[in-house]
Amino acid sequence: MSLLMWTSELKRARGFFAAAAVLLLPTIVAAAEPLPAPEGPVILVVSGNIEVTNTDGGAAFDREMLHGLGLTEIETSTPWTDGVQVFSGVLARTVLERVGADGAAVMASALNDYTVEVPMEDFQNFDVLLATTMGGEEMKVSDKGPIWIVYPRDNHPELQDRRLHDRWVWQLKALRVQ
Ligand SMILES: Nc1nc2c(c(=O)[nH]1)N[C@H]1C(S)=C(S)[C@@H](COP(=O)(O)O)O[C@H]1N2
Ligand SMILES: [Mo]
């Protein structure tokens, strides 16, 4: 191997290591704290391509753990409720960040095993809520609870689209990152 070739190999290798370091950086930053075990009834399990788990099945959350990530309110009308409602819950993005999720989409499934694919961009582009209360009241299973995926529909005309209705999963029980 000539010296010239060797130098260009070396440069390429250095470029590779620099790129690898940049790629690894978000992983290191995202290496979140361990998640404590849930103490109350589990209302959400996040699984799939995540870094932080607290059970064999993934990251299990009871209501308190979920709320502990920070509550956000959104006011919006929905095609399934009357007038403008105040919802509160945790941003989907916050939950996914907490477990170190890495993927292009999330399979969201409900208690009745209804399952739909939600693109990760939805959570990045919009303040999508994993809502647990509506009008200040905890949502019961009979009332789209314990968790309803609520989009800030009134704030974004592009969300006022029937083609997105299948992503408003109610009685949500699990998110699988893929
Ligand atoms: N838990 C649960 N959420 C769900 C569904 C479901 O079957 N179960 N259907 C979805 C689909 S495909 C659509 S279009 C809307 C259906 O709302 P509708 O029953 O009022 O038409 O809710 C979405 N959320
Ligand atoms: Mo649908």
Automatic annotation (TrEMBL):
Residues 79-152 form the Oxidoreductase molybdopterin-binding domain. InterPro entries: OxRdtase_Mopterin-bd_dom, OxRdtase_Mopterin-bd_sf. This is Molybdopterin-dependent oxidoreductase. It comes from Devosia albogilva. The lineage of its organism: Bacteria, Pseudomonadati, Pseudomonadota, Alphaproteobacteria, Hyphomicrobiales.
